[in-house]
């Protein structure tokens, strides 16, 4: 009876020594690359509130909300009656100053003539007293100083006129760039400018070129690449994919949200997108250090452990690992592995540690 039991064990021993045929995969070292859905906000590339620099009244407003405008286009006209009176008053002072200058020049000419005659007479001994020549010279110097003063007065009067005239262009409000009028805040007859009740007249925004502001979480800022192209979608166009280019990085975290503001430049030639939209961005979460990747099917998880089966000189070796991020059909793992190791592509816990492989 004992002999029969020994013979029955022989097939089991043979089976344990039989090499199992498996498919291998190579452990790859690379930077992780995946996408994370992040919320974002669209803002105009340029925006400006147009104000009246002078205390004035609104005469005409040539645009309204939604008007498309070109750089330099006239948007509104203002009037300032008091300024015209100020210009007229300043202009009236110029000829008065000119007349004073001419009178001073005449006095200078007379003083110079007197000095020349006195100096010539002084050449004859005893003809004139010596101090008369000095007095005549002082009169010339005084007349010259008066002329210089009057010339400065003329220049000041002319400058006052130019200064007032240079303010006249501020009565015309022009578009500072190509864009769209998004707010109209005044109507004809309103008093605006310093002391006016309405601080702004119009708001113009550039919407053909937009900023997409993305709050990037702290753990993802290491993978930001300036110039990279990023795709996003807007709720208003669920079946359309837009894209922008990473252009500006804040380089500082918001202490409340622990995110860093990153701006993308977005071309909006057809005007589909609008400031204020909240699109969803497919943010590229790039790793900063190389990680080890294996096929997802190579990782076995049981109640006790998570492992891969490595080929060690033709035999199975269970290697405990921790799973990381997924990248397509691969997944990053951390454990006693190195790039180039061969692992079983589709192992099971029935493939025991130390079993022969082929």
How would you describe what is shown here?
The structure is a single chain. With 358 residues, the protein is of the alpha+beta class. It folds into 4 domains: 20-32 and 288-358, conserved putative lor/sdh protein from methanococcus maripaludis s2 fold, CATH 2.40.420.20; 35-46 and 206-287, Efflux pump adaptor protein, beta barrel domain (Elongation Factor Tu (Ef-tu), domain 3, Beta Barrel); 47-78 and 169-203, RNA polymerase II/Efflux pump adaptor protein, barrel-sandwich hybrid domain (OB fold (Dihydrolipoamide Acetyltransferase, E2P), Beta Barrel), CATH 2.40.50; 82-168. It is built from 3 helices and 19 strands. It has helices spanning 2-16, 81-121, 130-166; strands at residues 24-26, 28-39, 41-50, 56-61, 68-69, 74-79, 172-174, 179-184, 191-192, 202-217, 229-234, 237-254, 259-267, 280-295, 300-301, 306-312, 315-327, 330-335, 342-344. Strands 2, 3, 5, 8, 10, 11, 12, 13, 14, 15, 16, 17 and 18 form a 13-stranded antiparallel sheet that branches. The longest helix is centred in the first third of the chain and has 41 residues, at 81-121. The radius of gyration is 44 Å and the shape is elongated. The chain starts with a helix and ends in a 14-residue tail after the last strand. The relative contact order is 0.20. The model is unreliable at 1-16 (pLDDT under 50).
